[in-house]
Design goal:
alpha+beta; six-stranded antiparallel beta sheet; 6 helices
């Protein structure tokens, strides 16, 4: 009997410790916003952006049959504050219903998710007219496109120098449309291209002009 009691005591103690550890983890975890978009037969099919309150954001952009893997990136404090302010306007998605609930084309399933310790709320939608949600969606899609184009530019610089100018033209097109939330993130790459004689002159000129435009627009 004493042996049974000892076993029960040990099991109870372990459960208590495990529970306290989980509670401490939940309390210490910082608030986290996640945006996910899944759109089969599009390019890309999968986008996921995670932005914690203070830590490093991550992004993942791929086709659904590709290996998953997130990459860290940076956002300015100003943009992070704007994102979290919009989330606050949406009541952290608690009880939110953002979809228009009309018969329209499939534009991909979007998900906004908020996690704060033990609390989590999320909302899914195809299309929304809610003003703060539209702003948040534009920022998230813009960040994804921004990282996509910057990665393309990096690959061309490394493996296809003649293709750098085409990548710069894509960068310029999106810049003209106001797609990028933080175009200044491209300045290090633009400056490298502008100052490197291994790239064709037209690419160097375009990179120089884009860098000057971004700096003066700030």
């Amino acid at each position: 009997m004493n042996s049974l009691r000892r076993k029960i005591f040990v099991v109870s103690l372990l459960l208590a410790i495990f529970g306290l550890a989980n509670l401490a983890l939940a309390v210490s975890a910082e608030p986290l916003f996640t945006y996910k978009r899944v759109f089969k037969e599009s390019v890309p099919e999968f986008i996921e952006i995670k932005i914690p309150e203070t830590g490093s954001p991550t992004f993942e952009i791929r086709q659904l049959d590709e290996e998953p893997g997130a990459t860290a990136f940076e956002v300015t404090p100003a943009l992070r504050s704007k994102i979290f302010a919009l989330i606050g306007q949406l009541n952290h998605f608690k009880g939110a219903d953002l979809d228009v609930h009309r018969k329209i084309a499939n534009l991909g399933e979007k998900t906004f998710r908020w996690e704060d310790g033990a609390e989590s709320f999320e909302v899914k939608f195809n299309y929304t007219l809610n003003a703060p949600a539209v702003q948040l969606l534009q920022i998230c899609e813009g960040l994804a496109r921004q990282q996509e184009v910057l990665e393309l530019l990096q690959r061309r610089m490394k493996y296809d120098r003649l293709g750098v100018n085409d990548a710069l033209m894509q960068f310029e097109t999106d810049l003209n449309k106001g797609v990028f939330p933080e175009p200044q993130r491209g300045l290090p790459l633009l400056d490298r291209i502008a100052g490197d004689s291994r790239f064709v002159e037209i690419a160097r000129q375009r990179a120089r002009a884009l860098a000057e435009r971004i700096r003066h627009s700030g």
